[in-house]
Amino acid sequence: MKSRFKFSDILLSVGTFIVFALSIVLWIFIMTNDQYFSRIDQTNNVSQNSRSRRSRIIYNLYLPTSAYGFKNGQPYRLYDAKKNLPLEYIKDLKEVKYKNIREVSSNQKEYEAMLNDPKYLQLTFPNEVSVNLFTKKNLKSTDQTFRRSFISPSNDVLYLGNDKTTTIYRVEIANANFNRLREYAAKSRAKKPVKFVRMKNSYETFYDQPENWRVYSYLTNTQTDSYFVSRLLGTANVTSSNNKKGWTTYSLNYYTKLRVPDTKAGRHDMLYTRYEKQKNLSENDCLIDSVEYVHKLGLSEQDLRYFDTTKDKLSYSNYIEGMPVFMGKHSPQVSTKLTQDTEEVAFSNLELQIPIPFDGQTRTLPATGTVIQRLVNAGLKKTEIQRIIVAYRIEKDHSHDSLVNLIPTYYIKAYDQWKSAQEWEKQDFNKLAVKSQGEGK
User: Fold this and answer.
1) Residues 373-404: tens digit of each pLDDT
2) Which residues cross the membrane (predicted)?
3) What DSSP assignment string belongs to 73-89?
């Protein structure tokens, strides 16, 4: 018995050693396998469950960007740096339970009456978003889209509005309490009088008189090419090739590439491309899948918000004091394009890092109607104007290499293109109309 016991002890020790040694070998293999880490890096967000992913999307990127209230029947754009109204609205939605949603009107006059009804506090998204993005369940087989939330005096009912179709949805809700949001809106410090004007397929915010807008300054940061190569392509089996037009292309294989500008070019626009057959996605799926690519880039998302959808392209912009920032000449921070054959992510590696205390600089912009008339006089058809907004363009501050100024500027979307008002005034609209007609065929 004694020798048998010793023999079993030896077998147990040998078995333990083998298991321990095998675990070390497997650990070394995993830790040194770049393809494994690359896949983790590229798919870690996808593996999360639907509820946590949906919550992350709401709180990070899909927030309203403007709020509107009324005083003596006059609509005002509301903003308060200390009480973030859109963020407060999203917090209030966290515990809401959605009981029923139904269409109550698609009449343009009724829609415009609601836009100008003092009973409602409005919060708007830059473009239509999916109802199912927020409801945690499919309320209908079809996924309604909306741009505006109308906060009624009751906490039991919420109204949603689609600018394009002038459709109003009535949503029955439970566990909602918008009282604090209403209180913050009533005490909002920055109020600018506005009116809502129908453009090509949306209602835009018009300022009836010249307005002063603050100029902000930020210290910036740029991530290295290797940072994005590592995140998007991994660190093994990546090749690079230079061409003569100021670009370097990094390739993981024939299907996955990253194009970056040469350092001396002074540009910041990068393009990630992956060729892969895609399934047919719903609008809700496109919104969610697009976010995964934004997370994959590893950019700071503190002020990054959903900005626009044009055909099959979704874009995200930094929002400073409630206004979007164009990082390039007329491009936002990130744009994703998902087609049946490719996934494309165009982005800027320039990031806004540290705000400089406001020094009192302002710019006066003319009334919105004045800008529209200038564009019409320059040859832009009013029926082609899709959006008009006040946004920031980046201007280099020569007092410091990493310092930029954010200059308030009118930006207009027409023919599915964003450009500043000054750029549109110099546009040859005859050539643009011909090109647009050719692309539409």
Assistant:
1) 999 999 999 999 999 999 999 998 888 888 99
2) 7-30
3) TEEEEEE-SSS-HHHHH
The 10 Å Cβ neighbour count of residue 180 is: 12
pLDDT of residue 136: 61
Cα 60–chain centre separation: 9
The confidence score (pLDDT) of residue 419 equals: 94
* Residues in CB range of 117: below 8 A, 6 or more apart: none
Look up residue 276 and give its two tokens. 């892969």
Q: How many helices (H) and strands (E) does the chain have?
A: 12, 26
What string of DSSP letters covers 298-333?
T---SSEEEEEEETTEEEEEEEETTEEEESSSS--S
- Measured at the alpha carbon of residue 217, what is the angle toward residues 211 and 220, in degrees to the nearest 5? 140
Please state, in angstroms and rounded to a whole number, the distance separating the CA atoms of residues 240 and 259: 9
Residues ≥6 apart with Cβ < 8 Å to 24? none
Return the sign of the alpha-carbon dihedral for residues 97, 102, 107, 110: negative
Sheet strands (E) in 297-437: 304-310, 313-320, 323-326, 334-338, 342-348, 350-356, 362-365, 385-396, 403-414, 417-420
pLDDT tens figures, 338-358: 877 888 999 998 888 889 988
Whether this model's pTM surpasses 0.90: no
